[in-house]
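Section 3.1 - Work completed
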Amino acid sequence: MPPAHLTPSEAARWAARGGLTLPADRHAVVAATAEHIHSVVAVLRELDFGDTPPASAHRAGEETHDAAV
């Protein structure tokens, strides 16, 4: 079940709750941006990472090239 649409006044309330003062002319923009971020995160949550190792298993500077060149 998708979450309810974030209204501009709710965006302002959440900003205030987080200690941010949000000017009235920014409420709608912030709400739209939050909705977009949520839609992107929702897509990421649907991905199946299966056998992908955690980031802690990555060693910086060590690259492997499994593809034939």
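Second construct:
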Amino acid sequence: MSTFKAPKGTYDLTPPDSAVYLAVREAISTPLKRAGYGYIETPGFEQVDLFSRGVGESTDIVTKEMYTLTQRGSERLALRPEGTASVLRAALEANLHKAGNLPVKLWYSGSYYRYERPQAGRYRHFSQVGAEAIGAEDPALDAELIILAVDAYKSLGLKNFRLLLNSLGDKECRPAYRAALQEFLRGLDLDEDTRRRIEINPLRVLDDKRESVQQQLVGAPMLRDHLCEACKEYHERVRELLTAAGVAFEDDEKLVRGLDYYTRTTFEFVHGGLGSQSAVGGGGRYDGLSEMIGGPALPSVGWALGVDRTVLALKAEGIELDLPAATQVFAVPLGEEARRVLFGLVTELRRAGVATDFAFGGKGLKNAMKSANRSGARYALVAGERDLAEGAVQLKDLESGEQKAVALDEVVTVLSELQAARG
């Protein structure tokens, strides 16, 4: 046993489970690639002020959950707790918005870090795939991103997820609602931290999950009653586009999400099989974030989907992904000459696109065949002195047990054809 273990609230991804995570990442990113989103990668840490300005000083993410780093000099750094602020910062720094083709469409995949109480579906280190469309104010763009997320979930076979939808208004109509909500909240029996939040970002109080708070929010003013005509029209257009695309959604008037930068469209995907941590992903429009972090006005929209929670959702629905075997062919040499010849064939097969492994370590036939079976390979290539003298190897189907001799110079062709036939 090692002296060291993974830190509390984190996890290691190891085979074979890691293959499921890779498949989920690929499934989420595939619709994005088809829709013109390019890949972006940012550092695992950023300046603290990027998140305090963008995510919000009043959010739990910034005040309680962000990991800050101690270093030489005066610069304050933090492990990234979310992806949008980093991606927007990188896009601005690279002047992607000046290339003349807006919106700038980007997708990313990576690890994020928050100091939270570990529980199922909530980790201190977690994985997300995200997408951002920067520089355009268009309800069709909001609808596009939501549809791409829905298509990703459906491609994995998920059925029991729900889409919650709301509008948070904009700088024209939100101030009046904010004042009305503050007046209502100040009359409630709330703890000191929550009362401070009323003054900084009262909408976040609506997102409080505690039953004692939710009970008091009955009768709270709703944002829908304060939306300006432009926001009402924008939100209705998003709803119409989703409906036309066959995307079911539920209007949720209290949906705020935990980040300060959202405006207008906000949405969340929830799954009933995950217990208290039901959110599997979400996002929204953030038209003022660029200006908050020192950039020009760039209305934008995006989302992040949790890879960890998507995997939990798959387990909750009993879905096993149809993953290709890591190994399709396993080579078993008997003797030194066979080791040399088969190792060369293994290299040729790999270069031809056939996933192939080799019985390393000089194992005997019995142990080598056990390794072949454990590898998940469909075929074993077995060769000894007699086979080589005849210019052939034995090809064994590990499912049916059938075995036949194949000429050395035909092995790559035969196995490539067998792989193609199996799809």
